[in-house]
Specification:
Layout: H1 12-26, H2 35-49, H3 54-62, H4 67-76, H5 87-104, E1 110-116, H6 122-133, E2 141-148, H7 151-159, E3 161-163, H8 172-178, E4 179-181, E5 189-192, H9 194-197, E6 200-204, E7 217-222, H10 231-242, E8 245-253, E9 266-270, E10 273-276
Parallel strand pairs: 1-2, 1-7, 2-6, 7-8
Antiparallel strand pairs: 3-5, 4-5, 8-10, 9-10
Helix pairs in contact: 1-4, 2-4, 5-6
C-alpha cells in the first residue's frame, strides 16, 4: 500500500512511537516490515475515534487512561490458533506427562495447567478434551488457567462458541461428545460442552505485568508467544515461568520457538517440549 493510497498519513515517526509503546506494554518486537500491517490494523481505530491522522492517534495514546492502549495491544497481537494444533504436544501430555503426574501428585491428587497466550480458547479446550479422554481419575482436582493479553479473545474463549467448521479436524465422536450444535440462526455454530468449560478459568493477563496467582503448575503451554520477544525478554519470561512450576513440570513452546542459548533451567524433551531441571530456583 503506497502513501498515496492511504486514507491517513502515517510517518516513520508515528510507526516508531507505536511500536515502542507496543514493545513496552507487551514485549513484542515489531520489525520494520510490520509498517503496513500496523497501518492496516490501526486505521480502523483512527476512523472509529474520528481522528484525522496517525499523528493525532499517537497524541491520543499519550493522554490515554489505558482503554485505547488495550485496543492497540489487541490490534498488534496475532491470534492464529486451532483445536489440537501441534497435536504431538497433547500426545506427549497424555502418554508421557500425565502418567508421571499420577505418581508424583498421588498425595495431593491435583493437576494445574496454564495456557498462557490462549487466544480464542481452542488450546485450553483441547487441553480439557485431552484430560477427560486420558483416563485420569475423575476424583482428582484438575484445573486449567487460560490467559491472554487480548481481552476480546479471552471473552470468545470464555463463551466457547465457534463456527462449526472450526471443529472439522476433530473426529466425529469428539465433535458429538464435546460440542453442542446450534440451531436456527446459530445452525452454523457450536458451543463447547459444559464438561470442558468447568475445567477452565479464562482471565485477561499481560505476561510482562504482575501475575495475580501463585501456582505451582504441572505444565505450562506458551506456544507462539516468545517468538515475538527479544532474547532478554524471552529469557526473563521463561525463567519466571520456572518459579511457578513444580520440579519436572513441562513447558510447551511453539514449533518455531527454542530455548537453545536462552536458559539452562529446562531440558529439551524434543519437539519443543521442555522439562524444568535442578538448575531452576
Amino acid at each position: 500500500m503506497s502513501a498515496v493510497e492511504r486514507e491517513y498519513e502515517f510517518t516513520q515517526a508515528d510507526f516508531r512511537f507505536l511500536r515502542e509503546l507496543a514493545s513496552r506494554k507487551t514485549g513484542i518486537v515489531l520489525k520494520d516490515d510490520k509498517f503496513n500491517m500496523l497501518y492496516s490494523r490501526l486505521s480502523r481505530r483512527i476512523r472509529l475515534l474520528g481522528l484525522g491522522s496517525f499523528k493525532e492517534y499517537c497524541r491520543y495514546l499519550e493522554n490515554d487512561n489505558g482503554d485505547e492502549t488495550t485496543e492497540l495491544i489487541n490490534s498488534v497481537t496475532t491470534n492464529l490458533t486451532s483445536f489440537f494444533r501441534e497435536k504431538h504436544h497433547f500426545d506427549y501430555l497424555r502418554d508421557t506427562h500425565f502418567p508421571m503426574l499420577l505418581k508424583r501428585n498421588s498425595q495431593s491428587k491435583k493437576i494445574r495447567i496454564w495456557s498462557a497466550g490462549c487466544s480464542t480458547g481452542e488450546e485450553p479446550y483441547t487441553l480439557a478434551i485431552t484430560i477427560l479422554e486420558s483416563g485420569l481419575p475423575k476424583t482428582w482436582d484438575i484445573k486449567i488457567l487460560a490467559t491472554d493479553i487480548d481481552r476480546n479473545v479471552v471473552n470468545t474463549g470464555r463463551n466457547g462458541v465457534y463456527n462449526a467448521d472450526r471443529i472439522d479436524g476433530l473426529s466425529a465422536a469428539q465433535q458429538k461428545r464435546w460440542f453442542e450444535q446450534g440451531s436456527g440462526e446459530n445452525a452454523n455454530k457450536v458451543r463447547a460442552h459444559p464438561d470442558l468449560k468447568k475445567l477452565i478459568s479464562f482471565k485477561q493477563l499481560n505476561l510482562l505485568e504482575e501475575w495475580p496467582f501463585s501456582g505451582p503448575f504441572d505444565a505450562i503451554f506458551c506456544r507462539n508467544v516468545v517468538i515475538y520477544f527479544d532474547v532478554n525478554t524471552k529469557k526473563g519470561l521463561v525463567e519466571r515461568y520456572s518459579r511457578y512450576m513444580h520440579q519436572e513440570s513441562c513447558l510447551f513452546l511453539g514449533h518455531s520457538e527454542s530455548l537453545f542459548k536462552v536458559t539452562d533451567y529446562f531440558d529439551s524433551e524434543g519437539q519443543t517440549v521442555y522439562r524444568k531441571n535442578s538448575n531452576a530456583a
